[in-house]
């Protein structure tokens, strides 16, 4: 019963929107607004046909690599900066400067420095996704319970044991918040990076359909991006439940108390 209720919450609004869309386009011949049925047909014909290996797989590969690099760098640097005040004091001006620079502005520079390749696109994704993870990790490390930190110091718990049993669990809720924020940022930057001097990817294909006035194909690409976003959100929710199982249990116990 609970499963059906959750499915209803997930599908309720999309079903309503599709019904309104279908009713609004009933009998309409506007070439710029496809009907829902035609759009679904184009979605499978274009993106799950010949374009799947040519454009979808390269885009997802770059996105996943960029997210993985951002998570490793963000958590590692966040722990270092959050754990030592002098490191934070030393790097804070540079971090504030770099955070203020939009990653998309650097695309022309990276095209010249790195070239027209996957490395440029992955770098753009990393430059955008790094900050939510890094800043949330720093905040999480700094907000660790001082009593627990002092107890670990008194009992001589340091090094890897301290990192594993105190720092990472204590900062994990905020780290996961940063990762969730980076998912949408990464998806946006994946598309933007593929719209400049490239030969494959979902963004490249969407721009091609737009230039050739293939509106149903272009709209199907936008629909595909929304479905990818939903899939990433569902996968992340499952990972988060496993990583923060202790945290969710603690919150439930607190609410019951």
TrEMBL record:
- State the Pfam families in the record: BPD_transp_1
Supply the InterPro entries for this chain: MetI-like, MetI-like_sf
Tell me what this protein is called: ABC transporter permease
| Membrane topology listed for this record | Multi-pass membrane protein
Q: Locate the ABC transmembrane type-1 domain: which residues?
A: 56-240
The record's similarity note reads: Belongs to the binding-protein-dependent transport system permease family.
Cell compartments where the protein resides: Cell membrane
* Keyword tags: Cell membrane, Membrane, Transmembrane, Transmembrane helix, Transport
Residues crossing the lipid bilayer are 7-24, 63-84, 96-116, 122-141, 183-206, 218-236
Principal location:
membrane
* Source organism of the structure: Lysinimonas soli
Give yes or no: UniProt keyword Membrane. Answer: yes
Q: Does the keyword S-adenosyl-L-methionine apply?
A: no
């Amino acid at each position: 019963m609970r499963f059906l209720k959750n499915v209803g919450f997930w599908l309720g609004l999309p079903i309503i929107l599709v019904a309104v869309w279908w009713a609004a386009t009933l009998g309409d011949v506007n070439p710029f607004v496809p009907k829902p049925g035609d759009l679904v047909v184009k979605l499978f014909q274009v993106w799950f046909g010949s374009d799947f290996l040519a454009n979808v797989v390269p885009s997802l590969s770059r996105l996943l690599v960029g997210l993985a690099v951002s998570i490793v760098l963000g958590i590692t640097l966040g722990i270092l900066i959050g754990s030592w005040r002098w490191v934070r004091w030393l790097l804070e001006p540079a971090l504030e400067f770099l955070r203020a620079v939009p990653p998309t502005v650097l695309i022309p520079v990276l095209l010249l420095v790195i070239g027209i390749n996957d490395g440029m696109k992955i770098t753009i994704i990393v430059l955008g996704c790094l900050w939510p993870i890094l800043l949330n990790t720093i905040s999480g490390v700094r907000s660790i319970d001082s009593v627990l930190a002092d107890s670990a110091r008194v009992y001589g718990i340091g090094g890897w044991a301290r990192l594993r049993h105190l720092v990472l669990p204590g900062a994990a809720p905020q780290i996961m918040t940063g990762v969730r924020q980076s998912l949408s940022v990464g998806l946006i930057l994946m598309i933007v990076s593929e719209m400049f001097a490239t030969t494959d990817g979902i963004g490249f294909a969407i721009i091609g359909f737009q230039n050739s006035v293939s509106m149903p194909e272009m709209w199907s690409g936008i629909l595909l991006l929304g479905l990818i976003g939903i899939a990433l959100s569902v996968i992340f929710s499952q990972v988060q439940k496993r990583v923060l199982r202790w945290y969710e249990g603690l919150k439930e116990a607190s609410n019951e108390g």
